[in-house]
Design a protein that fits this description.
It is built from 11 helices and 7 strands. The chain is α+β, with helices and mostly antiparallel strands and 307 residues long. A 4-stranded antiparallel beta sheet has the order 5-6-4-7. It is globular.
């Protein structure tokens, strides 16, 4: 237990999940904290680090085994100790997901759209293709047409190739429009991307973490362990939100979009506590060579720059 009541509430909330999402939290920890320090740590130190979240050793070992089977992690034995790091595949997955978490801003939108027609794909395969495109920010504007206002064509084509449907899809790219977001366009976006539901999730995030922000600011001296726990849960919850968020251009979002306030809150908390959290990581995680390597320069570019 910590002295910060809002942090205790967040830890209790995590522990009350059924089932407890240990594997997901471990991925958050690797992406946010371990990868910037070289990416490899001793399993024993990882177990000790995660204990305050209420995850016992058996569950951690089971989760690590599962992540290894799923090609997220790979193990190296040095004597009787096991050291785990992200696989090449796991690192690529991490980079795609976490790049969105820490980016300072999105590129400006020129009003163009990418459309993918799925009408020539067998019905039993179409659901899988839709789900994969949704991960890339696409929404369904009809049962067989997916649309995205800011898509990377090479990523889209690579996804269709991986799913073996590139020859069965029709991909269009529209030109920029004079009116980027008409009333009809905003209504379509609201419906196709379930904007209201996503906004409610962002509101819940703000309600969960605003008390923590206030409590942290009132502390004369922040405890490194509290900062580590808070930072991990902050990024864990924010990362899960961004997995649902297509990150549409501002022109297509409501004027009172809660995603903006949630991002500002996440950035403010992270900037306040990241240094103390680093102190705790350096004290508690071990590599085969001893202490953690220093973080690289890219770490300090998170959220537009860390002091």
């Amino acid at each position: 237990m910590t002295a910060l009541a809002p942090l205790n509430q967040l830890i209790n909330r995590f522990q009350e999940q059924t089932p407890i999402r240990a594997s997901s939290l471990i991925i958050t920890l690797y992406g946010d904290a371990i990868e910037p320090h070289g990416g490899t740590v001793w399993l024993g130190s990882l177990i000790n680090l995660l204990e305050p979240f209420g995850i016992n050793e058996r569950l951690i070992r089971t989760s690590i085994f599962r992540l290894t089977k799923e090609d997220w992690l790979t193990a190296e034995k040095v004597g009787r100790r096991s050291y785990y790091s992200l696989t090449g595949t796991g690192r690529r997955r991490f980079e795609k997901a976490f790049k969105r978490v820490y980016s300072s801003s999105l590129p400006a939108w020129d009003g163009s759209w990418t459309l993918v027609m799925l009408s020539q794909i067998a019905a039993d395969k179409r659901k899988q293709v839709r789900e994969e495109l949704e991960w890339q920010g696409f929404g369904a504007i009809s049962p067989t047409v997916m649309a995205c206002p800011r898509a990377d064509r090479s990523d889209v084509m690579a996804t269709l190739q991986d799913l073996d449907v590139a020859d069965d899809c029709i991909v269009f790219e529209t030109r920029a429009q004079d009116v980027l977001a008409s009333r009809a366009m905003r209504m379509q976006v609201r419906e196709s991307w379930k904007i209201d539901e996503l906004g409610e999730h962002y509101s819940e995030f703000i309600q969960l973490f605003r008390p923590l922000w206030q409590a942290l600011r009132e502390q004369d001296q922040l405890r490194p362990e509290d900062c580590f726990l808070a930072r991990t849960l902050l990024i864990h919850e924010y990362r899960r939100l961004l997995l649902r968020d297509p990150q549409l251009p501002d022109e297509l979002l409501p004027g009172d979009w809660e995603g903006r306030a949630a991002r500002q809150l996440c950035r403010n908390i992270y900037r306040l506590i990241h240094a103390k959290a680093e102190d705790w990581l350096n004290r508690n995680l071990e590599t085969a060579d001893g202490p953690l390597p220093d973080v690289g320069e890219s770490f300090y570019k998170r959220f537009g720059g860390l002091n």
